[in-house]
Design goal:
It is a single chain. By secondary structure, the chain is an alpha+beta fold. The protein is built from 15 helices and 26 strands. It has four domains: about 5-10 and about 20-245, no CATH class; about 255-295, no CATH class; about 305-470, no CATH class; about 525-635, Immunoglobulin-like (Sandwich), CATH 2.60.40. About 25% of the residues lie in helices and about 25% in strands. It starts with a strand and ends with a strand.
Length: about 625
């Protein structure tokens, strides 16, 4: 038998509106995005022995009057109290009531004590979910700890009601419990009612609400909902009268947006009705939704390569020493056994560079403990600057750092935190929405020292690594020459204008000198509308010794100084998709930064590159040598 408890407040209890929902109302995400993130984050928190997690989203329809679950849950007393609290949907229930069913498998269920709501601790998931607000019971593998995400389930229901059937891995018990959370306390006659109501096996509102354990009742509900929770550990959440915006298509888009990487890694599988979102299907599903996804196709390709080639047991390409955080700028000396020039060359040719950064954390209770984060960087080329922070499968998508790099270059970055010590620290720094970090969170001050410094190291590891990999800048000594006079040059000009002394001899007239004609070049460098072309000079093709090794360099013109010395990676990167390279009779093409190295192999050979800014003057120069004559180098 099930009962609702609607508890009256005593004269000393405070009335008012819950402010926790305001944390989610300020987001740029839809209500479906928020629901999906919170409903999947909780199962990932409660992973059983590092197992792969499966989450099902199902929609069920129950007939009013013919359903035991609806008769027990949406009672007349419940509907009356809902009306008193200002929920208009509760007074007249429709003939058919929709229920959103959210199941998770491979999890521990809602474990912990359920007959004493005062007990706290890392493993007290039951009390944290049903009896806590603003704090959570989160173990070291947790994604969140604010204890407010569960509110999104109540908000997803038009009658602000949630029930849960859980099978616990700790003791095998099957428990059913539920609740209703109104926006504020409400008044009926002379009584003030609490905004939380409980649904379970206890009728007296003065006693602790206890869950239903009667197997016959639980079996009946499972049969009506066509679910098979049974003895499999995990939790099945029931959201009656869900928001109409929560549709299978909206859920699919939200899952791909919020959990692309954990699905790709095989750590999470989601079923939306009969649609499978797994490591085997997510790439194809994402390609069918190009206009609705936040992750661009190039960035998804980048994540696919990271997941398939760089997240195994192999060592990263770069590892930094423990003193890297003490330096204002990363240098080659901070690398452990890696050649910086090799890393730069790989980065500039589009390879993904992986690196591991050790980070020391000052815990008040445990002292100085070591954590680690991984950074994956790839040159983007086309001006795209995209990055993603992922902490134990949860995307912290409002955190951005690459654009703060002093040597700005288009790049893609994944900053991955799988380490438990660092993840626990970052969980304490997260806002309740879990989309960004805040160094002023009270939990940080309670559990850690020097938290702001540690958080800064995490945020800027990728941007500092990018500065190290981008070609070093050339100091421009003439940057301000147009604005300040050169007094030395003025004095030299005055000296040059002095009249010739009287009696000074004049130089004799040597007659007209014939200037020899320029030596013809075997390769032509031709400007195009937005680029350049290199081709064999047709008149000298029979004199060329193939292959001819070439290096073609580009830079935008500058007012003063040498443009090639002042080229900056932010101007353009030739490895990007915005530049199109076409070649005939040429091979070995390697674009690097602002230059291309290639070979012309036959008399009709040519190479062209386009995609430069038409509004800027493009400077170009070509150096080439012929086969068998390394000293025969020509400059154009």
């Amino acid at each position: 038998m099930t009962h609702w408890q609607f508890r009256t407040l005593n004269p000393n209890d405070t009335s008012g509106t819950s402010t926790a929902e305001d944390n989610f109302a300020q987001e740029e995400r839809t209500s479906v995005d928020i629901l999906v993130r919170e409903c999947i984050q909780n199962p990932l928190d409660a992973r059983l022995d590092d197992a792969a997690v499966r989450v099902n989203f199902k929609w069920r329809e129950l007939v009013t009057g013919a359903s035991c679950l609806l008769n027990d849950l949406l009672t007349e007393e419940f509907r009356n109290q809902q009306a008193f609290a200002g929920v208009p949907q509760a007074t007249d229930m429709p003939a058919v009531v929709k229920v959103l069913v959210i199941e998770d498998f491979g999890t521990i269920g809602l474990c912990g004590c359920y007959d004493d709501s005062a007990i706290d601790g890392d493993e007290e998931n039951w009390n944290a979910f049903w009896f806590r607000e603003g704090e959570g019971a989160k173990p070291s593998k947790a994604n969140g700890g604010a204890g407010q995400g569960k509110l999104t389930m109540y908000v997803a229901s038009d009658i602000r009601t949630v029930a849960a059937l859980t099978t616990r891995a700790s003791d095998g018990k099957r428990l059913l419990f539920g609740g209703c959370r109104f926006r504020r306390n409400y008044v009926v006659g002379n009584n003030r009612y609490a905004r939380e109501a409980r649904w379970g096996a206890t009728s007296n509102p003065s006693e602790l609400a206890m869950p239903v354990e009667q197997s016959s009742v639980l079996d009946q509900y499972e049969k009506e909902l066509k679910i098979e929770r049974g003895d499999r550990p995990g939790t099945t959440f029931l959201i009656p009268v869900p928001d109409p915006a929560i549709t299978p298509d909206a859920i699919t888009v939200a899952v791909i947006n919020e959990f692309y990487l954990p699905v790709l890694r095989g750590r999470l599988t989601v079923y939306v009705d009969d649609k499978e979102i797994s490591s085997a299907t997510i790439t194809e599903l994402a390609s069918q939704l190009p206009d609705e996804l936040r992750l661009t196709p190039p960035f998804r390709t980048f994540l696919n390569e990271v997941a398939s080639q760089h997240l195994g047991p192999q060592a990263p390409e770069a590892a930094f020493d423990e003193d890297w955080g003490k330096e204002t700028k990363l240098t080659a000396e901070n690398l452990l056994g890696s050649n910086i020039e090799v890393l730069r060359e790989k980065f500039q040719t589009g390879s993904i560079i992986s690196a591991e950064f050790p980070i020391w954390i000052s815990s008040i209770s445990s002292g100085r403990i070591k954590g680690a984060l991984k950074v994956f960087l790839q040159e983007a080329g086309s001006g795209e600057m995209q990055e993603l922070f992922v902490r134990q499968d949860l995307a912290i998508d409002k955190e951005k750092s690459l654009r703060g790099a002093k040597r700005l270059a288009p790049a893609r970055a994944l900053i991955l935190v799988d380490d438990e010590n660092l993840s626990r620290f970052l969980a304490a720094a997260e806002e309740p929405t879990h989309r960004e970090w805040n160094g002023s969170r009270p939990k940080l001050a309670l559990h850690y020292r020097n938290a702001a410094l540690t958080l800064r190291l995490v945020r800027h590891a990728a941007s500092r690594m990018l500065e190290l990999l981008v070609p070093p800048a050339t100091k421009d000594t003439l940057a301000l020459a147009a604005f300040f006079p050169d007094m030395t040059a003025k004095k030299e000009a005055q000296t040059a204008k002095q009249p010739k002394k009287k009696g000074a001899p004049d130089g004799g007239d040597e007659g007209t000198l014939e200037i020899p004609p320029p030596k013809p070049r075997k390769l032509d460098l031709l400007p195009l509308d937005d680029g350049a072309m290199v081709r064999v000079n047709p008149s000298l093709a029979d004199q060329c010794l193939f292959p001819m090794t070439c290096k073609l360099e580009f830079a935008y013109a500058t007012e003063l100084g040498k443009p090639f010395d002042q080229w900056d990676a932010a101007d353009f990167y030739l490895t990007g998709s915005s530049h199109i390279i076409s070649a005939v009779g040429a091979g070995g093409i390697i674009p690097q930064g602002n230059e291309i190295v290639f070979e012309i192999t036959d008399p009709d050979g040519c190479l062209s590159i386009t995609g430069f800014d038409k509004n800027r003057q493009l400077e170009m120069r070509l150096k080439y040598s012929e086969s068998g004559d390394a000293n025969n180098i020509q400059d154009i």
